[in-house]
Write a structure and sequence with these properties.
The protein is an alpha+beta fold. The chain is 21% helix and 42% strand.
Length: 127
């Protein structure tokens, strides 16, 4: 697996996007202030910014009243084949989602949590 980026899951997407772009001066490589997802690339690293409710929808979790304490960061790993990695790991870890094509994202994904509860996504490009 290859760690491709860290994704911040935020409740105030537009304000955060403008903060990272305009205040910190990060270069946008994908998205804008209205896209609900954006990527900033620098020094060979990618910082993703994603509206938290969209991530909750993607993993099928229900919104919770204390959302500010729920999934602030997700680690994103690229794999050659999500189905194969899922089969390899499913006896060792409990997956939140089975391999799923995310329509409009151009990727197939599966999600699980590490022992401390951190959200982890594995993905492969399909376009």
């Amino acid at each position: 697996m290859e760690l491709t980026h860290t994704r911040l899951l935020v409740d105030n997407y537009r304000e955060c996007f403008l903060f990272y772009r305009d205040v910190l001066g990060f270069e946008v490589s994908w998205g804008d202030e209205d896209s609900l997802y954006a990527e900033f690339k620098f020094n060979g690293c990618t910082l993703g910014l994603f509206e938290r409710e969209k991530m909750i929808e993607a993993i099928g979790a229900e919104s919770v009243s204390n959302a500010h304490n729920f999934d602030k960061v997700a680690l994103i790993f690229k794999v050659n084949n999500v189905e194969e990695k899922y089969e390899e790991l499913k006896e060792k870890i409990k997956f939140i989602t089975k391999p799923t094509i995310q329509q409009g994202w151009g990727i197939k994904v599966a999600h699980f949590r590490d022992p401390d509860g951190s959200l982890v996504e594995i993905y492969e490009g399909i376009e």
